[in-house]
Write a structure and sequence with these properties.
Blueprint: H1 7-24, H2 27-30, H3 41-51, H4 65-77, H5 86-112, H6 117-128, H7 132-137, H8 143-158, H9 165-175, H10 179-193, H11 202-224, H12 230-236, H13 245-254, H14 256-262, H15 265-271, H16 278-297, H17 304-331
Length: 336
């Protein structure tokens, strides 16, 4: 059984995952334009950040990391990619980089949990083949960045490298503002449930809080032109009052996007959870509940599935892989 992968092997796996991601996201180049679909104004705003065009101070203009990563690919692509839209090409490359990195991290995380290389690799493949990857994380949005840095939070906690938490805080929060409360909740629950309990690790969580929410505040203030903090943003996102909180919550979990993402991932993942670190499972559950509450507060409908996938997909993908690879062992004929 593998316990770790060499840097060379990680790079080889990452290159494979990147090519898979680029293929999964190809329809944005030659089949449809996400920015022109009804209700997809976000993709247009991210495209404006890529090109450097003036972006109105709307509720997404501070999510700059993925568009910034895409920008050099846009410069290289202008006039060189034929019929492809250079902005969408650049966003696909950037999203493929982050999504492939998340899949590679899942392999490493699986090995860190004591799973076999095959089980860890299948878990990464299940992650990539989910509905959310081509339709959300590779579709000219920025969810791939949040997913990657949440995966790095998981790896850091599993590996006992809590000192890395403040480092992931800045790029994670520049990917999407929800990274800050998700990462903090995830880390706090993990810290409280981990054994043996180590009080000294609180210092790294406080660093995560400071840098994550500080980054969100700076990004919001820079795009709004005045001091604008996370609480101001939260008040702006209050949209459930039109239908009521409970109905908004039900609208999130009954949306078709929720079921497209979790219809097979959730049941298979739950069946294999017994092989996964308990602190990871509890942290994922608590953070997922927070994401559902945010979705109801914002009356986010199917968009809530994006956040839930970013939080829970690594855990559920590996747990589902445990269940599926276990079936092969159970059905294998006895050796003569």
């Amino acid at each position: 059984m593998f316990t770790e992968l060499s840097t060379r092997n990680i790079l080889l796996i990452w290159a494979l995952f990147f090519l898979i991601c680029f293929g999964l996201g190809y329809p944005t180049l030659n089949r449809y334009d996400p920015a022109k679909l009804p209700g997809s104004s976000d993709a247009q705003a991210y495209g404006n950040i890529v090109t450097g065009a003036k972006v109105p101070p709307v509720d997404i203009s501070h999510r700059v990391l993925v568009p910034w990563v895409a920008r050099p690919f846009y410069w290289l692509a202008r006039g060189r990619v034929g019929s492809w839209n250079p902005v969408l090409f650049a966003m696909l490359v950037a999203n493929s980089v982050f999504t492939a990195s998340t899949a590679a991290a899942i392999v490493v995380i699986g090995l860190q949990c004591g799973l076999s290389y095959v089980t860890s690799l299948v878990g990464a493949m299940l992650f990539l083949f989910n509905f959310a990857i081509p339709n959300m994380n590779l579709a000219a949005y920025v969810d791939s960045g949040e997913a990657f840095f949440l995966a790095m939070i998981t790896w850091s906690l599993l590996a006992g490298r809590w000192f890395l938490l403040p480092i992931w805080a800045i790029p994670g929060s520049l990917s999407k503002e929800t990274f800050a409360p998700f990462a903090v909740t995830f880390s706090v629950i993990w810290w409280l449930t981990d054994r043996p309990f180590r009080a000294a690790r609180l210092i790294w969580i406080l660093g995560l809080v400071f840098f994550a929410f500080g980054t969100v505040w700076l990004a919001l203030s820079a795009t709004r032109g005045s001091s604008f903090g996370p609480l101001d943003f939260a008040a702006e996102m209050n949209r459930y009052s039109e239908v009521g909180f409970i109905k908004a919550l039900l609208r999130c979990v009954t949306a078709r996007e929720f079921w497209y993402v979790f219809v097979w991932l959730l049941p298979l993942g739950l069946l294999g959870l017994n092989r996964i670190d308990r602190s990871w499972s509890l942290a994922t559950a608590a953070t997922s509940i927070l994401a559902l509450l945010f979705g109801a507060y914002n009356d986010a409908l199917g968009n809530t599935a994006r956040a839930l996938f970013n939080i829970a997909a690594p855990l559920l993908s590996l747990a589902a892989s445990v269940q599926l690879t276990g079936l092969t062992r159970q059905s294998a004929p006895p050796h003569p």
